[in-house]
Each structure stands twice: as structure tokens, then as C-alpha cells.
Write a structure and sequence with these properties.
It is a single chain. By secondary structure, the chain is an alpha+beta fold. It has 8 helices and 4 strands. The chain is 64% helix and 8% strand. Strand 3 and strand 4 form a beta hairpin. The longest helix has 25 residues. The N terminus is likely disordered.
Amino acid sequence: MDETCFFSQVLKMLRFRLMGFPIEVQPFFWLICAIFGGAFSTRAPEDWIAVPFGMAAIFVSILGHELGHAFMAKRYGGNPRIALHSLGGVTMLGGSGFTRRENIMITAMGPLVSIAIGVLALLLTPVALFNEYFGFFLGTAVWVNFIWTVFNMLPILPMDGGQILATVLGPKNAKLSCLIGGWTASLGAVGLILFMGYGAVFAAAILGFMAYQNFRGASMLGGVR
């Protein structure tokens, strides 16, 4: 098998169907899983054994979140597909003409599933006393689903909180949604650096990028004032 064929097979392995939904896992998604799955906190070779468990917890958590969106979209007549990428995941709804209420329900279902996964992981924590790696899996699932849900519900586009805000305000106030998102992301990035120091640089950089994207969106809708 030549090199081109090998990479082609790898990419095919990253595309599959689950519960009827097409799912694509992009290569850089695994890098993010490794970063947040404990790769940066390793101090000895044996520490790396726990990293795949952390990565698995993040994969299950983010996929579960996106499946929440997908199931609700399908209920309202959509034909959704899921992609897991370097910034998390996205569900393409595959439909049009959703009402405002339907859009809010579709968006809100992802965080609700995340909370459910976090609660389940928390309830299973006592079982983890029998295996440290399973404990690491559950611990990662707890903080990912609770902390990420709080972060994800901030009114910043394209996160779920920003999507819900934009839906509530409506297309006529799209610029306002972008401005709220831009200022929220900017303040969040500054706050992370001030209160958490350099350990929060990566998260602050993501917020900074989102702030840029939101302000850019506002500018394209008529200029930032």
C-alpha cells in the first residue's frame, strides 16, 4: 500500500455513520482531544497511558453533544450530519424553514445532553475507585461537560449561547448579536488572562479569535459603531 493510499484509508476510517447520522472526524480534532485530555500535564512516560482515556472522554462528550442537536433537527424534518473539528464540533442541520422555537430547541438540546453526560459521569465516579484510568475518563467527562457547557452557553457566535441569542433577537438584530458576542468574548479573554494567568492562554486565544470573528461579522453588517 503506497503512502497516498494509506492516508486515503485513514481518512475513510474517520468517516462513519452512527444512529443513522453521517459523522466526520477531522484529523485536528484529535490534537485538541490530546491537549485537553492531559497531554500537557504529563511528567513521566507512564503518564501518557492516561491520555487516551482523556481523549476518549472528550470524544464521547462532544459527539454526544452534537447528537443532541442532530436528533432534535431530525425530529423537525432536518437531515443532519456531524463534523468534529479543531474547535469542537458542528451539526449541519440539513433543512430549512425551522421556526424560531424549533431553532432554539435544536440548539438547546446539545447543552442538555452535555449536562446529562456530566451527571452520569459524576454518578459513576465511585465506581472509578477500582481503576485509576477509568477514573481519569470519568473525571475528564465531568469537567468537559460541565465547564464546556457553561462556556458554550455564553452569548458568543457561533457557540450555542450565541446561536440562541441570535435566534431570539431575530435577523433584524443580527449586528447586535455579533457585537454582544464580540464584547463578551473580548472580556472573557482578558478575564482569563488576569485571573488564571498563562495557563489560560490557549482558551483566551480561542475567545480572542471568536471576538475577532464576531466584530468582523458586525462590520460586514454595517460597521461597528
